[in-house]
Amino acid sequence: MIKKLLSAAAMFGLVASMSASQPALADFPERNIQNIFPWGPGSAMAVSQIIAEAMGEELDVNISVVSTPGAAGVKAFKTAMNKPADGYTLIDGYVAPLVLQPLLGNADWTHKDFIPLHAATANAFAIVSRRDETRWKDLDGLIDYMKKNPGKLRYSTGSRGNLPHMVLAKVMQSADVVARNVPYNKNGDAIKDLHGGVLDFMFHNPGHYKANKEKSKPLAVLSDNADASAIYDGAPLVGDLGYDIGLKGLSPTGWNWWLVRKDTPPEVVAKLRDAMAKTLARDDVRQKILNVGFVPTGYTSDQYDDVISKVRDDLSSAIDALQWEKDKLKSVR
Q1: pLDDT at position 13
Q2: What's CA 263's distance to the chain center, in Å?
Q3: Do 237 and 272 belong together in one domain?
Q4: Do 186 and 216 belong together in one domain?
Q5: CA–CA dist 1, 8 (Å, integer)
């Protein structure tokens, strides 16, 4: 009899516990949400703030974007992964910490270790030279100059081994030309040196270009997305110029996909997904994003694994291009 009473009491406790938890999920969110962002302030953070503000309106809470730079985005991911899997911490999943750093052996996760909410945006890179450059007027001219002067030109992608470096190395590999990459701690210093004649060409992202368009001339946009050309005032896409760099879709661009931890309750995931989808479908939100120079990508959670698996495969070949560049430079000394 005592055992039966204890068993009944335990069952009552379980039911009570389940009943208490259901309203909490049904009422989600009951407090503000954080988006853990992997970079410092800049145009990319501004875009995440645009999405966060509008998504907060959909959920009737505030979503703050928390800048957590360090280790090429790995610090932000680790910070977010140490938070409870309750939906109150979102991970701003940029390509570097989500795909590239695991490929390089600097992180112990894959994209399959997270639950996707919705793709956010992409920002295309461009190869730029000085506006008053006289040695060439377009990408074909730059390539021709490099063929005649192997290893003589200097360029920068900020730090070495990052995504822009890989993409520019793929461009040069496709044309069998090479130049010397000069590392900089701050992209602003590289831009000054480009305009001062220390560098011959470099990469720009949309923010760089918008701030320096009077002095910088885009030679090619490193994307196959036609919308990206408009961001660089109609500069041609690299593929339209006949260069096949072997990187399609999102692969040659910077991009982010908002995520949560894998053990987040399904009901919470569903609410977050619905709110983000509604946010990115809003014309006012899309226009604000485009005004910054980013492009909403539109991929849904169902497309997550397929899209990112293809990016992962493409970036494996882009990593190989860095070694090709080193070997090519040795051969022209």
Answers
A1: 52
A2: 24
A3: no
A4: yes
A5: 11
Residue 84 sits in a domain whose CATH number is 3.40.190.150
Helical (H) or strand (E) element with 66: strand 63-67
139: its two tokens: 């990408």
- Say if 10 falls within a structural domain: no
Instruction: Kindly state the tokens that stand for 9.
Output: 């009491």
CATH code: domain of residue 170: 3.40.190.10
Report pLDDT for 18: 47
Nearest to 54 by CA among 270, 258, 285: 285
The parent domain of residue 226 ranges over: 125-250+324-331
Are 106 and 140 found together in one domain? no
Strand partners, 122: 255, 295
The angle subtended at Cα 322 by Cα 250 and Cα 100, nearest 5°, is: 40
Does some domain include residue 7? no
Contact 297, 148 (CB under 8 A): no
| pTM of the entire predicted model | 0.86
Residue 4 lies in a domain: no
Q: How many domains does the chain contain in total?
A: 2
| Beta carbons within 8 Å of 207's beta carbon, 6+ residues apart | 42, 43, 44, 292, 293
Residue 24: the pLDDT is 55
Examine the domain organization and report whether 42 and 156 are in the same domain: no
For the segment 199-230, what is each residue's pLDDT rounded down to a tens digit? 999 999 999 999 999 999 999 999 998 889 99
Confidence of residue 19 (pLDDT cuts 50, 70, 90): very low
Predicted confidence (pLDDT) at residue 2 exceeds the cutoff of 50: no
For the purposes of burial, counting CB atoms within 10 Å of the CB of 64, is it exposed (0-12), middle (13-18) or buried (19 or more)? middle
At what angle are helices 266-281 and 43-59 packed, to 10 degrees? Answer: 110
For residue 115, report the phi and psi dihedrals to the nearest 5 degrees. -100, 125
State how far the Cα of 93 lies from the Cα of 97, in Å rounded to an integer: 7
Contact in structure between 190 and 92 (CB atoms under 8 Å): no
Please tell me the predicted confidence (pLDDT) of residue 3: 45
Residue 18 lies in a domain: no
State the Cα–Cα distance between residues 188 and 50, nearest whole angstrom.
24
Give 53-67 pLDDT, tens digit per residue: 999 999 999 999 999
Distance between CA atoms of residues 54 and 116, nearest Å: 18
